[in-house]
Amino acid sequence: MDVKKRMNLFYRYILMTASVFILIGIVILPLTSEEEQFFVLFSLIIGFIILLVLIYHMFENYVRPIRASINVTNELVKGNYNARTYVKPHGEAQQLSNAINVLARNLQEMSIQEKMQGSQWKTVMNNMESGLMLIDERGYVHLINRKFMQMFGKNSVDYIGFLYYDVLQDDAIHKVVQETFLYEEKMTGNITKSINGEKHYFEVVGAPVINDVKELKGAVLVFHDITDLKRVEEMRKDFVANVSHELKTPITSIRGFAETLLEDEMAEDEIKEQFLTIILKESTRLQSLVHDLLELSKIEKEEMKLSTKLIEVDEWLQSSLTLMEQQASNKSLQFIKEIKPNISFHGDPDRLQQVVLNLMYNAINYTAEEGSIFLRVDENDNEVIIEVEDTGIGIPEEARQRIFERFYRVDRARSRNTGGTGLGLAIVKHIVEVHQGTISVSSEMGKGSCFIVKIPKKW
Ligand SMILES: Nc1ncnc2c1ncn2[C@@H]1O[C@H](COP(=O)(O)OP(=O)(O)OP(=O)(O)O)[C@@H](O)[C@H]1O
Ligand SMILES: [Mg+2]
Questions:
Q1: Relative to the alpha carbon of 293, which ligand is closest?
Q2: Ligand 1: which atom is nearest the Cα of residue 451?
């Protein structure tokens, strides 16, 4: 209350009291004698002054603090928790003012805490790795988080306040919501969605929201992106199918020829030898398949302990080069080496030799006679660059990323003829990656391919 109003009230009280005294004076004075009149007037004036002091005292100690308290209470009602009332150091209204100030302080603390909790909850909700949607018992959307918008697009205004089935078209989601409401239990479902042209798999979990008196108040829907999990599951299934298939062929063949040999005792030595050769060849294939598989699983399980050393490239490549030269000349291939001298870096020499040999074998296998293969080793400040290039059949564009997958072969029949298992590049990629390096491929059909391996010098 401003000062002016307060003073007005004060003057009104004085005016009222003065009127009462004047009235008393008017009534009493004519009834008294002249000597008594002075005494009555004096008494009235003294009485008026005493009353004036009393009114002032009452005003200061009761009316003013109570008025101030009412104002503060009104401010608190409006939500202004900063409001405080004026507290006199003493006086009877002090307790009331004190209580109101304590109340205001508590309210302020509570509102700060509530705000903090609200913002913490918002932070958690918006940084969750899963999409979230809150639906009330009538099916209206009340809340969604940031991840949900990333998954399903659009903004919160396009969802909040709408019925869930109007904003989410998927039948599987409708089913989860309906069953959650019906059974009042956690329900799950799966949906697929295309995001930026990529197919994503989601698990939808619906949980009922039940209040203290066991009434259903709505449901929370949580969307988990399980695309990676699905991919791993599919890869595992593919892997098992591929391994079985790869093992089946040589085993069937070995068994078939062995049975024939046993049954046909009269068979000529020449045929026996032919069959035994096939059995030997197939069992060798089986052995290399099992060897590669074990190798791969060892690397994948991160059991592969690298024995890192300083590799002097010239010396390190010596034995592989001799082997390669021989293989290349068997196929009348030109072998061109461009190795920068005196390169050295840290790595596992045996494993990295495996990388070079695998790439070189591929280059030799997939290049027709009279072609050329190149081995280049270069370096920059941070990495060693190994390039294996050929003038062979090339790799079709759609296969370029897939050739690093286990068992993937562009031409199964051809690769099998060369004794390939389709595991070579998968192993190469793993070894390069445990060295924190990268491998890439460029190729032109019918012209040749080039594999580039980059290994950091320090890792
Ligand atoms: N230099 C290359 N030129 C053309 N195609 C290639 C080349 N290198 C790899 N490929 C293709 O990539 C596929 C996968 O190669 P990868 O080395 O993993 O298997 P593989 O050579 O068939 O068998 P292995 O496991 O015995 O090496 C090959 O089957 C082949 O189709
Ligand atoms: Mg190979």
A1: 1
A2: 1
pLDDT per residue as tens digits for the range 279-296: 998 899 889 889 888 888
Do the bridges between strand 344-347 and strand 438-444 make them parallel or antiparallel, or are there none, so unpaired?
Answer: unpaired
Q: What are 336-395's pLDDT values in tens digits?
A: 999 999 999 999 998 899 899 999 999 999 999 999 999 999 999 999 999 999 999 999
Fold of 128-225: Beta-Lactamase (3.30.450)
Ligand 1 contact via 63 beta carbon (within 6 Å): no
Round to whole Å and give the CA distance between 309 and 312.
9
Q: Residue 164, Cβ neighbours under 10 Å: how many?
A: 20
Regarding the beta carbon of 226 and ligand 1, being less than 6 Å apart is answered no
Fold classification of 309-456 is Heat Shock Protein 90 (3.30.565)
Q: Name which of 15, 20, 29, 26 is nearest 47 in CA terms.
A: 20
3-state secondary structure of 310: strand
Range(s) for CATH 1.10.287.130 in the chain? 231-300
Q: What is the CATH number of domain 231-300?
A: 1.10.287.130
Residue 114, SS3 per DSSP: helix
Phi, psi of 312 (to 5 degrees): -95, 110
Structure tokens at 355: 């990388």
Name the segment(s) of the chain with CATH classification 3.30.450.20.
128-225
CA distance 134 to 385: 53
